[in-house]
Amino acid sequence: MSQVKFNNRHKPFKEALDARVKNYFEQQHLKELGNTRLFIKTGILLTAGVVTYLVLLLLHPAFVPFLLLWVLMGLLLACIGFNVMHDAAHGSYSRNRKVNEILSYTLDMMGGSSFMWKIKHNVVHHTYTNIAGEDDDIAKHPVFRFSPQQKWYWFHRYQHIYGPVMYSFTSLSWILFSDFQKYFTRKIEATGVRKMNFWENAIFWGGKLLNVGVFLIVPSLVFGFVPALVGFMVMHGVLGVTLSFVFQMAHCVEDTRFPAPDPGSRRIENEWALHQVATTANFAMGSRTLSWLVGGLNFQIEHHLFPRISHVHYPQLSRLVQQTCREFNVPYQAYPTFGKALVSHLRHLRHMGSVR
């Protein structure tokens, strides 16, 4: 494991926040996990995905509807990832561990790896957020320079232009490269990956084959290889762009920080919770529609502070977090709209590309 440590000996901010959140759930007689609204949403999204897939295969639509249905499939897979997989992988979907485990496999259906995700996201990203050399989410170097601690190359001047194009390859990268790199090196940045057991190996390889089989081979038998490949690429392109923007806008914007540990002690001079607030931003908190679609990931500050609490509670928790931030004089970064957060992300890319 990484040797970076936080100053958690005294953590008044987190202790005050934990007490406030605990009191909220007790007073409201609520569980911290998913509820009926989340279960209904899961049914809607999974049904919509299956129906869209069957319409593609059975109705043989014309070229334009064909492409639009693949676009819709990519968006639905992203929504399933945000709403279902993400909560399940954190163990916040259900009190039943088996339910959480099974629903986390929806990531394998998309071509990713739920095993690797739980390490790279739950452990590495949520612990070492925005720390270069530790956080795998900003480890896209040399293609991207997200952090001032990363080496500058001349082509980073243009990363705010080529970034959205490259983002379209995110989910394809999972299938073809990044998961395999982690699998064979057994390492995610500075964090080791334990050896997989038989079933974990079967799910890892089976998920890769399932994604290609369901979304490329079967459509090839119906439409021919070239149209199926076009649809496959469109679906993954939409999926990749959607995933990338939602996650990057939470951490790689103008107002978030990229702390560097002390070179000697490998220590961050902040308690972990304060580090999370400093490195994370919210966006479009007033949009119920966007919150529904992205699984509450527009409330990333709340998610990073309480990753084991389901996203259905984040709008209410945000009031408590903001109140606590005001009391401790801690900046709470939030962009009023999706568009403003997107612009801030592109500006951050441009700034990182212009400053050596």
TrEMBL record:
Record keywords, A-Z: Membrane, Transmembrane, Transmembrane helix
Q: One Pfam family for this entry, by name?
A: FA_desaturase
- Transmembrane stretches in the record are 38-56, 62-82, 198-218, 224-247
Specify whether Membrane is a keyword of the entry.
yes
What is the superkingdom listed in this entry's lineage? Answer: Bacteria
For this protein, the record's InterPro entries field holds:
FA_desaturase_dom, Fatty_acid_desaturase
Ranges for the Fatty acid desaturase domain? 66-335
Presence of the UniProt keyword Secreted in the record: no
Q: What name appears for this protein in its UniProt entry?
A: Acyl-CoA desaturase
What organism does this protein naturally occur in?
Compostibacter hankyongensis
